[in-house]
């Protein structure tokens, strides 16, 4: 097969996958004769979607990066609550909990996390609603953190619980991607509550709702834990 034909097939598959993402949350159809038919179809499509996107995903393909002049100003807040309801976590008493297939499960303080080697990126956050913003984040590469705590990287899932009740999970391949970080800073300053203080996941290869804020704990394992929006019908893999 010629490379051009292969690239076209990959592009078509990606378009179909992303098209299903945009259609899924809007569907509200019931067949009176088969009340579960629509739900079963959407669930099958979502699972197929996940398989297609996972097959297309590559740890070596980076999300686009931008210059400081392209940073969105002012930054845009987004959550399932008003900005005034953003959780405030005391940085002095904060502990990042670890569970699952991890050798060293002692919780991490904010000072300990900040003492680790960090990286910075200027990347785009793409919302499933259609808008996008560019921001500057810095933090600890999740891959190096998983290695540091002795996580079993042959497991399928990395899951997160947040201070605001939000929860999410990602596949291990995405967790090990070089641009996936545990972000500590936003726009060259420590994270503020509206933008995920004291710690958030920043994963520019996925849609915005896969970037949970105010992380309180992380689990590594093979049990699928879903996510806040995924459990309401959103596609789980959700590559951007």
Structure description:
This protein is of the alpha+beta class and 240 residues long. The chain folds into 2 domains: 3-56; 68-232, Alpha-Beta Complex (Sulfite Oxidase, Chain A, domain 2), CATH 3.90.420.10. It contains 5 helices and 10 strands, in the order ααββαββαββαββββ. The protein has helices at 3-23, 37-56, 110-114, 142-148, 172-175; strands spanning 95-100, 108-109, 119-126, 132-141, 157-162, 167-171, 181-186, 189-190, 200-202, 215-221. The strands form 2 sheets. The chain has a 5-stranded mixed beta sheet. Strands 3, 4, 7, 8 and 9 form a 5-stranded antiparallel beta sheet that branches. α1 (3-23) runs antiparallel to α2. The chain is globular. Residues 1-31 have low confidence and may be disordered.
* Average residue pLDDT: 84
Biggest sheet descriptor: 5 strands, mixed
Cα distance, first to last residue? 27 Å
Number of domains: 2
Q: Assign an overall shape.
A: globular
**Helix proportion:** 10-25%
- Spans with pLDDT under 50 lasting ≥5 residues? 1-31
Helix-strand pattern, N to C?
Answer: HHEEHEEHEEHEEEE
Count of individual helical segments: 5
CATH architecture of the largest domain: Alpha-Beta Complex
Structure summary, number of beta strands? 10
Global Rg? 18 Å
Spell out the CATH superfamily of the largest domain: Oxidoreductase, molybdopterin-binding domain
**Proportion of β residues?**
15-25%
The CATH C-level name of the largest domain is Alpha Beta
Structural class: alpha+beta
Examine the coordinates and then state which fold CATH places here, giving the name of the CATH topology of the largest domain. Sulfite Oxidase, Chain A, domain 2
Largest sheet: spatial strand order: 2-1-10-5-6
């Amino acid at each position: 097969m010629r490379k051009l034909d292969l690239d076209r097939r990959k592009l078509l598959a990606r378009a179909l996958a992303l098209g299903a993402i945009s259609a899924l949350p809007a569907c509200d159809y019931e067949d009176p004769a088969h009340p579960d038919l629509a739900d079963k179809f959407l669930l099958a499509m979502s699972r197929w979607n996940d398989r297609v996107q996972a097959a297309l995903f590559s740890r070596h393909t980076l999300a686009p990066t931008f210059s400081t002049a392209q940073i969105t100003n002012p930054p845009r807040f987004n959550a399932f609550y008003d900005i005034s309801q953003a959780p405030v976590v005391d940085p002095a008493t904060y502990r990042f909990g670890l569970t699952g297939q991890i050798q060293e499960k002692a919780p991490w303080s904010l000072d300990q996390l900040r003492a680790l080697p960090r990286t910075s990126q200027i990347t785009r956050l793409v919302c499933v609603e259609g808008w996008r913003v560019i921001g500057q984040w810095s933090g600890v590469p999740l891959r190096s953190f998983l290695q540091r705590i002795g996580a079993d990287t042959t497991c399928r899932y990395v899951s997160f619980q947040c201070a605001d009740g939000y929860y999410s999970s990602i596949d291990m391949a995405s967790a090990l991607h070089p641009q996936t970080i545990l972000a500590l800073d936003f726009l060259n300053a420590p994270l503020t509550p509206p933008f995920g203080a004291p710690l958030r996941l920043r994963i520019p290869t996925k849609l915005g709702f896969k970037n949970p804020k105010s992380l309180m704990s992380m689990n590594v394992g093979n049990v699928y834990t879903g996510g806040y929006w995924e459990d309401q019908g959103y596609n789980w893999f959700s590559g951007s």
